[in-house]
Amino acid sequence: MTLPFLPSRKRLSELSEREILALAIASEEDDARIYRNWAETLRKDYPATAAVFDAMSAEEDGHRRLLLDAFRARFGDAIPVIRREHVAGYVTRRPAWMMDVLSLESIRAEAAGMERDAAEFYAGAAQLSQDAGTRKLLGDLAAAERGHENRAVELATEHLHSDARAEEDAVAHRSFVLTWVQPGLAGLMDGSVSTLAPIFAVAFATQDPWTTFLVGLAASLGAGISMGFTEAASDDGVVSGRGSPIKRGVASGVMTTVGGMGHALPYLIPDFWTATTLAIIVVFVELWAIAWIQNRWMQTPFWRATLQVVVGGGLVLAVGVLIGSG
Predict the structure, then answer these.
(1) What's the rounded Cα separation, in Å, for the pair 139 and 131?
(2) At 178, is the secondary structure helix, strand, or coil?
(3) Is the distance from CB of 12 to CB of 95 less than 8 angstroms?
(4) Is 102 exposed, middle or buried (0-12, 13-18, 19+ CB in 10 A)?
(5) 10-160 is classed in which CATH architecture?
(6) Residue 127's Cα: distance from chain center in Å?
(7) If you write DSSP's letter for every residue of 198-238 in order, what string do you get?
(8) Average pLDDT, the chain
(9) Which of 177, 195, 200 is nearest to 298 (CA)?
């Protein structure tokens, strides 16, 4: 129960030196745990980067021990429970489930941001301290955290030589393609091509834009749900290395829906021929986009991608128009 006359959070300037040291101890412990978690997560596919985070975790543990010694010397063993979220305006850390989905480059950038945040905290805390020893310790830690960016470069140079970085970047690219691009592309192709015949058959059979839109909406959402569940259930990613089935299912399902809705939305226009003309233009934009993605991310020769997608999609569109006009 929170008492109404007590603040739920304080500002850094309102904390006592005992509370500042307790906050610093908790912060160093949290950062060390984050680095260790990243190291463990990355160890299989990115061993060199994992070694960097192992070393950074060990340095954060060293800072925590210095802070613990300073706290015990001044205040004893009873450390109050103060964490980042208890201090107004203090930078918090992402929860574990958000950290776990970051890309390799995002993790590296996040680590650099963590070091900058820590340096700013120690610099501000040192200015508030009245004890010479504590002020010196906090100032030294601020300088150490500022130097961690350079230290991270040194560790990267030590563990991430050019061959290791190139190998890890290649693994990261492959993981991105297998987890997001490939299922998303499959969904976009399915949504764009498989809905062509029913949408244009209904359009030319009824010449009613609203009915055509409803059919397109139903076909797009139904195909998206089906493709999403199929992709997620087809492979757990453990053996194939294709990544999280949930991510793949989302990519496939969303892009399938987008592919179908692209040429269904023009039928919100009341005039049939205006809507149909715009829908056909959208179809060819979608098909060329698919061919470009295949060439850009899947290394498919552009002529082959064009033949497979644009020509194939054009034939499906023609079938729908012929059936609807019959």
Answers:
(1) 12
(2) helix
(3) no
(4) middle
(5) Up-down Bundle (1.20)
(6) 37
(7) HHHHHHHHH--HHHHHHHHHHHHHHHHHHHHHHHHHH--ST
(8) 81
(9) 177
Does an H or E element contain 10, and which? strand 10-11
Do the Cβ atoms of 263 and 199 come closer than 8 Å?
yes
**Model pLDDT for residues 127-166, shown as the tens digit of each residue:** 888 888 888 888 888 888 877 655 555 555 554 555 555 5
What the block records as the tokens of 258 is 């987008």
**Which of 31-35, 113-117, 120-124, 304-308 shows the highest mean pLDDT?**
31-35
Sequence letter at residue 42: L
Taking the C-alpha atoms of residue 72 and residue 123, their distance in angstroms, rounded to an integer, is 22
Counting residues of the chain whose pLDDT is more than 90, the rounded percentage is 24
3-state SS assignment for residue 11: strand
SS3 64: helix
- Stated pTM of the model: 0.52
Nearest to 19 by CA among 143, 145, 134, 146: 134
Residue pointed to by tokens 């305006």: 89
C-beta neighbour count of 212 within 10 angstroms = 29
- DSSP for 65-126? HHHHHHHHHHH-S------GGGEETPPP---HHHHTT--HHHHHHHHHHHHHHHHHHHHHHH
The single residue listed with the structure tokens 């130097």 is: 147
> CB of 243 within 8 A of CB of 177?
no
The tokens of 263 are what?
Answer: 């040429």
Q: Dump pLDDT digits (tens) for 239-263.
A: 455 667 888 888 888 988 998 899 9
Q: Where are the domains of the chain?
A: 10-160, 173-325
What's the chain's length in residues? 326
- Give the separation between CA 68 and CA 85, rounded to whole angstroms: 21
DSSP labels for 18-52?
A: HHHHHHHHHHHHHHHHHHHHHHHHHTTT-HHHHHH
Cα–Cα distance, 276 to 206 (Å, whole number): 12
**Range 303-309, long-range pairs (CB < 8 A, 24+ positions):** 309/189, 309/193
